[in-house]
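[job 0412] stage=complex_fold ligand=cobalt (II) ion status=START
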Amino acid sequence: MPAAPLRGTRIDHIGIAVESLEAILPLYRDLLGMPEVPLDDSDGARITGLAAGDSLVELLQPEQSDSPIGKFLARRGPGIHHICFKVDDLDGTLARCRDAGLRLIDQVPRRGAEGKRIAFLHPASTGGVLVELSEY
Ligand code: CO
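[job 0412] stage=complex_fold status=DONE, emitting structure tokens
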């Protein structure tokens, strides 16, 4: 079987922490015209996906205040929480980041929402952006 062609790093989704999905959904869905994409809840958050071409905006509303998104909201207020890049070689990319001295939140990939393998890089070593890496 031939190897899959390389697709290059792309934005998979942007995670946005919100106080209320119902309150913010009309902006993205109705005013900006982004179709809703059903997504599973994950990490103690209710998630609504909205398609922007091949990328998604994921609205993240905490279900508990002690969840990662709940803590983020309490500390920083609503706003962009993370950016997820899908990469051709997750293990290789994570190894390169480790070798470069970056602080990894996940030392090895874990299963995220939708069953994809993901890993997070700590914002302290990415210029302040919580970066999620995901596989195609
Ligand atoms: Co994400």
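The mean pLDDT is 94.
[job 0412] exit 0
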